[in-house]
From TrEMBL:
Coiled coil: none annotated. InterPro entries: Citrate_lyase_asu, NagB/RpiA_transferase-like. It catalyses: citrate = oxaloacetate + acetate; citrate + acetyl-CoA = (3S)-citryl-CoA + acetate. One of its GO terms (molecular function) is citrate CoA-transferase activity. GO terms for cellular component: ATP-independent citrate lyase complex; cytoplasm. It is found in: Cytoplasm. Its EC number is 2.8.3.10, 4.1.3.6. GO terms for biological process: acetyl-CoA metabolic process. Keywords: Cytoplasm, Lyase, Transferase. It comes from Thermobrachium celere DSM 8682. This is Citrate lyase alpha chain.
């Protein structure tokens, strides 16, 4: 069958189940139910603090075929996933499904667990490094399931993703299970992605390297959700939080793109008092924030909030009074961690509050402008941030699809060519975010506006910006470097890409060797 984007999908996928095809960004809303919460009662004399991860696994009655979950706030500095999975392997447990909000190069030891059958399934919002390569090569028994950040929370809350044991990397924890991310040697800030796991998993184990006296303050995840606590030497290296670019680009081409994007925002009419904004941590995206900052200062504009994974640059804008508040689901650098610790209006938010389409209102619905990246964009404005030019998984939606759907103006900023390959193509290799939720594509050669945004096209006519069609952008790129050869794929499905509502927007197939 085909979904609404023309992506050919099977009716049923082994290891995934029945396929519900994507039918539009807002077609699967309405009244939704939540999964029943599992509660194991604790008596006043019960002790939660255990001696080892192995003891915690035994107390949680780990068995073959279970699903265990992890969060990624320590990003490429995380030690917890590897520690837990090594112990599971040592116990001889097999057929484990790993539900990690994201997987990074530091999690390379997972590849060996995939090869020997300890791990047969993966759920993730983002994957990069050796694990992503192993999945792409078909080493995982069942297809990986790729969620959005909000979609993962939705899946957990609805019961689509049932977690047997959630492991929470807790920078600070007391002996009764109260957790925060702002103190301790591994402080990482907001713990937004761990909150749905803590609330809905059958068992919850906090792994901490900073055990404090009761009660831990402040409390982000409370004792009522935590079954056991294990003290270890270290849960991770907070320097690994800063994985990837978190500084403004100095590249003249990147700066040109960013300046034009800021001009689009200004022309849209959204840049006024009460303005709300989110940008990623990439160099061009942060440069957009710089130009927006300058415009807000020059015009005396005070925004309502900035949101998302918060960087030090967004903290600077907040502390200058350009925004009244920050909504933070994860801290992208240590300056953001420090701000989250001391600024009352720098608020944490759960993954569900951030982007779940099946609750009573996600923060993304209140965004005016979102700045997005892209690996590929096609003539229908569909965006790929899941697979690279070689067809190998190198990322995933994260909050891309959630924010594109929620914001009033979703802008993709990208160079027209990357590695001598055109970014604009006939059809993207993998659809991550549907074109109906993308409004503008800004490149150094020109700006394309989605034809559905005739209102914006009219406003931009009054500027000196180089407005053109997406087809014209594609033609310019191909005149420069030609048309790239198409990647050939096997029939084997290695990953299922779910839209935020749980429908299947695309699949990733194994690249032919």
């Amino acid at each position: 069958m085909e979904n609404i984007l023309g992506r050919v999908l099977p009716d049923y996928i082994e290891g995934y189940g029945e396929v519900k095809p994507f039918s539009g960004a807002f077609s699967n809303l309405g009244v939704k139910g939540k999964s029943q919460v599992f509660v194991k009662c604790v008596s006043p004399r019960d002790v939660k603090l255990l001696n080892s991860i192995r003891e915690a696994l035994e107390k949680c009655e780990i068995k073959d075929g279970m699903t265990v979950s992890f969060h990624h706030h320590l990003r490429n500095g995380d030690y917890v996933l590897n520690m837990v999975m090594d112990e599971i392997a040592n116990m001889g447990i097999k057929d484990i499904k790993v539900a990690a909000s994201s997987i990074f190069p530091v999690h390379a030891p997972l590849v060996e667990h995939i090869k020997n059958g300890v791990v047969t399934g993966i759920y993730a919002n983002y994957m990069s490094g050796p694990v992503a390569e192993a999945v792409s090569k078909g080493l995982l028994k069942y297809p990986a399931i790729m969620h959005t950040h909000g979609g993962r929370a939705r899946a957990i809350e609805s019961g689509d993703l049932k977690i047997d044991i959630a492991f929470i990397a807790a920078p600070t924890c007391d002996e009764y299970g109260n957790i925060n991310g702002v103190y301790g040697p591994s402080a990482c800030g907001s713990l937004g992605y761990a909150i749905p796991d803590a609330m809905y998993a059958k068992r919850v184990v906090a792994i901490t390297d900073n055990l404090v006296s009761y009660p831990a303050c402040p409390i982000e995840i409370s004792q009522e959700y935590v079954d056991f606590i294990v003290k270890v030497d270290s849960i991770g290296d907070p320097k690994g939080i800063v994985s990837g670019t978190t500084k403004i680009t100095k590249d003249p081409v990147g700066l040109k793109i960013a300046k034009m994007a800021a001009q689009v925002i200004e022309a849209s009419g959204l840049l006024k008092d009460g303005f709300s904004f989110q940008t990623g941590a990439g160099g061009i995206s942060l440069a957009v924030a710089k130009y927006v900052r300058d415009l807000m200062k020059n015009k005396g504009i005070k925004g309502s909030f900035a949101a998302g994974g918060i960087t030090g640059y967004i903290v600077d804008m907040f502390e200058e009074g350009l925004f009244e508040a920050l909504f933070d689901v994860q801290c992208f650098d240590l300056k953001a961690v420090e701000s989250y610790r001391r600024n009352v209006a720098h608020q944490g938010m759960s993954a569900s509050l951030y982007g779940n389409p099946h609750n009573k209102g996600a923060v993304v619905n209140r965004l005016d402008v979102m700045i997005l990246g892209a690996t590929e964009i096609d003539l229908d404005f569909n965006v790929n941030v899941t697979t690279g030019s070689d067809g190998i998984i190198m990322g995933g939606s994260g909050g891309h699809s959630d924010t594109a759907a929620g914001s009033k103006l979703a802008i993709v900023v990208t160079k027209l060519l990357k590695g001598r390959l055109p970014i604009v193509v006939d059809k993207v290799t993998t659809v991550t975010t549907p074109g109906e939720t993308i409004d503008v594509v800004v490149t150094e050669r020109g700006i394309a506006v989605n034809p559905k945004r005739q209102d914006l096209i009219e406003k931009l006519k009054n500027t000196n910006l180089p407005i053109m069609t997406i087809e014209e952008l594609k033609s310019i790129a191909e005149k420069m470097v030609g048309v790239p050869e198409k990647i050939e794929f096997d029939d084997k499905i290695v990953a299922v890409v779910e839209y935020r509502d749980g429908t299947v927007i695309d699949v990733v197939k194994k690249v032919k060797e």
